[in-house]
Inverse folding.
């Protein structure tokens, strides 16, 4: 059987989560590998969840937030952006490929962008193979 | 009430009877769940109005997927069954909810109301009949509205820019401005539609983002980007995005050969005849009042202007000619989104003023049983699995899902529902909670964004805390997007239910907290905006403190003589001052300034200080900043050295006094944009074009032998003000265009002033001998705006004016709850717009003040006192200043410090939680534990 990765996607309630709902309403189809966890803001996302997820068997982690300057809470997505560098460094320290983490901006209307992001992420992780970090 | 129109309004203000004709929908709104199965089966296709005829829709349809209410309707003209009884009926067969009703009939309703707001909106001009632009003949000539749909990801082209005739990728687009605006010959609409310049620029920029390398040209007469930050946007479009701007009215579009390309011929700014070929031409179609709105105006018996917009006054811009009937949006003249939203709130304020005595008379509060304390109980989770007709059950194996769900820890009850959201299912869930003693609920159905509020209410009805429910989104994010792979969808549904169960297990009962409100308002600034806001709040019964820095009320309006429509400003301002001063609910604090402020929404405390040091402390629930603006003092055009070079405000006074220089002068030169739209002040002061034109008309009318010149960059007599521009040209006032790089030179030459400017029509320098030069000076933000900005923690924009929370949808709110903005403090604007904004700010403030307490969502930050060590990382990142550092034990600094969260200020964004290295703060409802549990559960198999 081919490798079916498990990907955790943290979605902001106000943008990407709504875009995912809209993708459904428009019956757009995308790979079934992504499990969405709804947050109120991409800035709520704690960096430790990325390692948590990977060490427990996830093959990739996505954070999908509002476009810069469109954050409902003013600058939560800037915080998510700040932290993403740190996350990538952490991943490398623990022996994971940085491509296993992805940060994308998707507005509530951009169902196409949401679909594109999860489709591309799934393809990317399929190519990388199962996550296998130092602790993995 | 959708599909309804008003056919009659009888009675008078405070006591109307409105007759409403409701057309049949043929779909039962109570039963329709918006799944869309009907539309898929409907065999009849017609042009979609929403998509501006760029795609087809079915006879049973919703206009677009985000429509509210998301309920389908049948178009009786297109429906095969409704046209021929006994035929088709495909939708009825496929609707599991049984919502189709072909026997639906028209209904007449009579409703008693105290006030009416007319907001029928606008339609775009249809260029088909005018012929010259080739619209309807050449497939690649489209309207700006159609282009909007082409750019949209949900439109027919899915956001890819291909042209309609042959799906060729578009490389060159021309935008033609003023199609159906500023044009009495071809369309009869002499006014300016106000919004099309900005929307064309936006469309050009977005199109370039979609297709790199795309060439976009905008052909225009005057670039009217007079809104807040619009000029900056235009400059950015020109400089960064590379949008080309051509000042020229193109009078026709021709087909170039047989390849569907389009040819434009025009005369460029050098006076040369040019021909260019484009792949696509977008017509920036103007706004006009639709026929049904004209009928509505007739039925409502209100007056219209010559341009067919609702007639209003500048000092009461939402009041129609009939008392008790108000208006908002583009029905009272072309408006952009933020102006429309503002006028909507303003109409609400005017209605509240009229009906203040009846406030809350008809409101009924919901009552719920007492909440059971389940904190010490073992988790007993009930899971309800929704079929959503066949929307879920047609893909997901719900039997297998039920079997699996029953094996999950703490799950004691599982049940399938045909529609979990239907009323009978709600009642059943309440019964099950009681009968099975359930204390946590999971509903596996659609999206929590749409349905969580419903299920929260169900829990409340069952005596459970409303936060003990969790939804698993197995429709929008599962069955609908994995239709072709039922096995994967079933397996994903199991994961999603498992995640929801894991999360709800860690959920706690949350209390939404109530904060009492001081039912008083504070208005800072006693100009037009401040007085209007104060008066409206006071008329609604709330005590208002009005703070004015100077010793006189009136503000900048004291310098003005007439509004653009000719109303006498001093008379109106005097009336206003009189009402404010004598109003028993308004306390005016003259010569006071705010010097300190503390508190938060509903509970502010502001300190006012007089010049002599006298202090007053005001407690208030809401605040409005209406501090106005200042005049720019020119450094240019030898204003300092030549006495007969004056500012527009000075000129008005001299003119009024019939001063000898004005009286004797024969040649007048107005220079526009003095201090506006350049370098560090890249914004338009918005009112100066109209003001100069009005002054010029006055001079010319008084003595037709006078020569009056207006040197301008773009004439921005937007909206119905265009009539003034037209009148000025008719009277022989000479308009000469200049560019920023070729500003006029003003030199004193004995008894006259020489004004040199480049003439774009004659293509040579021109020297005007003026007796008087009038500088249309910019409006500048108050120099002390930053003080107030710091006191109330409300931001200033890059221009130095106060920054609203959202440019379009929250135009008078600050991001700080309970604080609002109106008038020139926000951005240069006319009196009519200031009044509208002031009413809107009052409306927003009163929405708050009319409650005794404000109930805040339970999803807020909670401090874990064990883990928090007071590192203050969260204090720095909190966007609402809701977190402060305090002593762990009061007055004992040795015990260390920790953070405290002000729940009234916290909005539950969780940026603190994401930043905390020690798990010292978390968001109730989204705790680290809950999120971890979800991750664990997602990966458990």
């Amino acid at each position: 059987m081919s490798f079916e990765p498990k990907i955790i996607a943290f979605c902001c309630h106000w943008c990407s989560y709504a875009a995912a709902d809209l993708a459904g309403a428009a019956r757009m189809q995308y790979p079934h590998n992504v499990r969405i966890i709804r947050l109120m803001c991409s800035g709520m996302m704690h960096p430790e969840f990325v390692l948590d997820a990977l060490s427990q068997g996830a093959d990739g982690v996505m954070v999908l937030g509002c476009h810069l300057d469109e954050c409902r809470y003013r600058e939560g997505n800037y915080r998510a952006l700040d932290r993403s560098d740190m996350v990538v460094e952490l991943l490398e320290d623990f022996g994971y490929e940085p491509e296993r983490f992805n940060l994308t901006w998707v507005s509530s209307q951009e169902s196409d962008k949401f679909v594109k992001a999860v489709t591309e992420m799934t393809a990317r992780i399929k190519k990388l193979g199962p996550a296998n970090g130092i602790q993995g | 009430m959708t599909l309804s129109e008003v056919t009659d309004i009888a009675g008078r203000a405070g006591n109307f009877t409105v007759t409403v004709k409701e057309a049949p929908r043929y779909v039962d709104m109570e039963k329709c769940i918006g799944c869309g199965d009907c539309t898929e089966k409907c065999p009849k296709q017609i042009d979609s109005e929403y998509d501006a005829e760029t795609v087809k829709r079915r006879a049973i349809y919703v206009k677009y997927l985000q429509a509210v209410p998301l309920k389908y309707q049948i178009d009786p003209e297109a429906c095969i069954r409704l046209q021929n009884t006994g035929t088709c009926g495909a939708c009825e067969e496929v609707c599991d909810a049984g919502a189709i009703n072909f026997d639906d009939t028209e209904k007449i309703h009579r409703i008693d109301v105290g006030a009416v707001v007319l907001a029928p909106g606008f339609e775009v001009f249809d260029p088909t009949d005018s012929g010259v632009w080739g619209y309807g003949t050449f497939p690649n000539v489209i309207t700006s509205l159609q282009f909007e749909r082409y750019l949209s990801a949900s439109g027919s082209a899915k956001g890819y820019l291909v042209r309609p005739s042959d799906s060729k990728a578009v490389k060159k687009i021309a935008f033609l401005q003023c199609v159906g605006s500023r044009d009495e010959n071809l369309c009869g609409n002499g006014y300016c539609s106000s919004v099309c310049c900005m929307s064309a620029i936006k469309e050009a920029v977005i199109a370039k983002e979609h297709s790199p390398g795309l060439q976009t040209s905008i052909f225009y007469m005057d670039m009217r980007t007079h809104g807040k930050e619009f000029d900056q946007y235009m400059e950015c479009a020109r400089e960064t995005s590379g949008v080309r701007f051509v000042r020229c009215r193109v009078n026709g579009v021709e087909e170039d050969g047989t390849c569907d390309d389009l040819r434009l011929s025009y005369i460029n700014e050098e006076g040369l005849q040019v021909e260019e070929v484009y792949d696509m031409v977008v017509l920036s179609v103007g706004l006009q009042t639709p026929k049904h709105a004209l009928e509505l105006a007739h039925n409502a018996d209100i007056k219209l202007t010559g341009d067919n917009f609702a007639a209003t006054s500048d000092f009461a811009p939402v009041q129609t000619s009939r008392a008790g009937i108000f208006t908002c949006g583009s029905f009272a003249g072309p408006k952009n989104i933020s102006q429309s939203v503002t006028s909507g709130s303003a109409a609400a304020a005017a209605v509240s003023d009229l009906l203040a005595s009846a406030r809350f008379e008809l409101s009924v509060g919901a009552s719920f049983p007492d909440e059971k304390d389940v904190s010490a109980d073992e988790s007993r989770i009930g899971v309800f699995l929704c079929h959503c007709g066949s929307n879920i059950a047609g893909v997901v194996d719900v039997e297998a899902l039920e079997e699996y769900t029953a094996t999950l820890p703490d799950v004691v009850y599982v049940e399938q529902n045909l529609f979990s959201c239907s009323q009978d299912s709600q009642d059943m869930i309440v019964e099950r909670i009681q009968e099975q003693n359930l204390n946590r609920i999971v509903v596996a159905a659609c999206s929590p964004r749409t349905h969580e509020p419903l299920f929260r209410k169900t829990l409340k009805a069952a005596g459970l805390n409303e936060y003990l429910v969790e939804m698993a989104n197995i429709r929008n994010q599962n069955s609908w997007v994995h239709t072709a792979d039922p096995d994967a969808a079933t397996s994903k549904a199991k994961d999603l239910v498992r995640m929801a169960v894991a999360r709800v297990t860690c959920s706690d009962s949350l209390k939404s907290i109530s904060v009492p409100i001081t039912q008083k308002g504070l208005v800072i600034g006693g100009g037009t905006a401040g007085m209007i806001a104060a008066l409206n709040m006071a008329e609604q019964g709330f005590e208002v403190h009005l703070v004015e820095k100077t010793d006189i009320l009136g503000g900048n309006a004291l310098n003005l003589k007439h509004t653009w429509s000719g109303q006498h400003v001093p008379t109106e301002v005097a009336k206003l001052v009189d009402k404010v001063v004598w109003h028993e609910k308004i306390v005016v604090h003259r010569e006071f300034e705010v010097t300190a402020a503390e508190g938060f929404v509903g509970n502010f405390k502001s300190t006012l200080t007089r010049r002599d040091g006298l202090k007053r402390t005001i407690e208030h629930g809401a605040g409005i900043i209406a501090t106005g603006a200042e005049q720019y003092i020119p450094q240019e055009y030898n204003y300092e050295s030549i006495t007969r070079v004056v500012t527009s405000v000075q000129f008005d006074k001299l003119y009024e006094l019939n001063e000898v220089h004005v009286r004797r002068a024969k040649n007048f030169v107005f220079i526009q944009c003095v201090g506006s739209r350049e370098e560090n002040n890249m914004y338009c002061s918005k009112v100066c074009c109209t003001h100069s034109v009005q002054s010029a008309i006055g001079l010319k009318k008084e003595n037709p032998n006078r020569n009056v010149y207006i040197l301008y960059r773009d004439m921005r007599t937007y909206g119905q003000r265009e009539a003034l521009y037209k009148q000025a040209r008719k009277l022989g006032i000479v308009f000469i265009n200049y560019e920023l790089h070729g500003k006029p030179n003003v030199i004193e030459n004995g008894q006259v002033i020489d004004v040199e400017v480049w003439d774009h029509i004659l293509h040579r320098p021109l020297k005007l001998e003026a007796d008087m030069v009038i500088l249309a000076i910019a409006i500048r933000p108050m120099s002390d705006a930053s003080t107030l900005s710091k006191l109330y923690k409300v931001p200033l924009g890059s221009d130095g004016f106060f920054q609203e929370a959202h440019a379009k949808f929250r135009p008078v709110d600050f991001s700080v709850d309970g604080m609002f903005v109106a008038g020139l403090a926000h951005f240069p604007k006319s009196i009519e717009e200031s009044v509208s904004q002031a009413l809107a700010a009052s409306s927003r403030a009163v929405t708050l003040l009319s409650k005794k307490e404000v109930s805040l969502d339970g999803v807020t930050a909670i401090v874990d006192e064990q883990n928090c060590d007071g590192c203050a990382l969260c204090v720095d990142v909190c966007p609402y200043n809701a977190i402060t550092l305090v002593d762990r034990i009061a007055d004992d600094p040795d015990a260390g410090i920790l953070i405290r969260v002000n729940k009234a200020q916290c909005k539950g964004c969780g940026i603190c939680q994401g930043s905390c290295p020690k798990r010292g703060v978390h968001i109730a409802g989204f705790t680290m534990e809950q999120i971890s549990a979800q991750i664990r559960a997602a990966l458990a198999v």
Remarks:
- Chain A is about 40% helix and 15% strand.
- Chain A touches chain B through 48 residues (CB under 8 Å).
- The mean pLDDT of chain A is 93.
- The helical segments of chain A are 16-25, 48-55, 76-93, 111-128.
